[in-house]
Amino acid sequence: MLTAIALASGCHAHVRLSAPGPTAPVEERLSAAHRLSPRMCRRTGGGTRPCDATFLQLADGKRVYHALDLLPVVAERSGTAAAARQSAQLRTLSTLAAAGAGLAFASSIYFGIAHVAREQSIHGPPEADKPLFGFSGITLSIVAGAAASLAYVVLMSQHGKHQSRAFTAYEASLLHRMRLCKEDGELVDCGP
């Protein structure tokens, strides 16, 4: 079940974002900054605030569910870029942990069925010859599944924290990349 939840939770489409570089005409950079500016994030538990891990809403209506999608429009060495990369790595590891949990729990079912089949077999090997097909195999699989499930929960929590950091730092990273500054609430060219 955990594996199904993990795989189903990653179904949001990626978005393609682009922004002009710092040497583009100021009007082009300002237009892009207004189009790409963050409007809100959706909180994991419901409600909105700037910003939490579920998604980032941009002014042009696009929703960013994957922090890595922000990389083309932020400074390469920004806090957003670093948090986005870390978030993606943790997401990959959590998916592997969920798959491992599913595999471990499936193997416990296999060991259980194999144990019952061998117990009912007239010609089965003596009890000493089948240690992994007994309760030790089932127990080992269940423990491995529980450990992988715990790893999934911890990794997804860390993924969410890093994604939230990426979303929170996004606007500053976007403006820095395009060499724009805020003065009195307005965006202006920061100069050379």
Describe this structure as you would to a colleague.
This protein has 4 helices and 6 strands; from the N terminus they run H-H-E-E-E-E-H-H-E-E. The chain is rod-shaped. Helix 1 runs antiparallel to helix 3 and helix 3 (79-120) runs antiparallel to helix 4 (135-177). The longest helix is centred in the last third of the chain and has 43 residues, at 135-177. Residues 1-8 have low confidence and may be disordered. With 192 residues, it is α+β, with helices and mostly antiparallel strands.
Helix content: 40-55%
Kindly provide the radius of gyration, computed on alpha-carbon positions and rounded to a whole number of angstroms: 25 Å
Largest sheet: 4 strands, antiparallel
> Which strand-content bin applies to the residues?
5-15%
Derived from helix and strand composition plus strand pairing, the structural class reads alpha+beta
What is the molecular shape? Answer: rod-shaped
Distance between the termini: 55 Å
Strand order of the largest sheet: 2-1-3-4
How would the blueprint of this fold be written?
Blueprint: H1 2-8, H2 26-36, E1 38-42, E2 48-49, E3 55-58, E4 63-64, H3 79-120, H4 135-177, E5 180-183, E6 186-189
Antiparallel strand pairs: 1-2, 1-3, 3-4, 5-6
Write a concise keyword list for the protein shown above.
alpha+beta, two-stranded antiparallel ribbon, 192 residues, 4-stranded antiparallel sheet, disordered N terminus
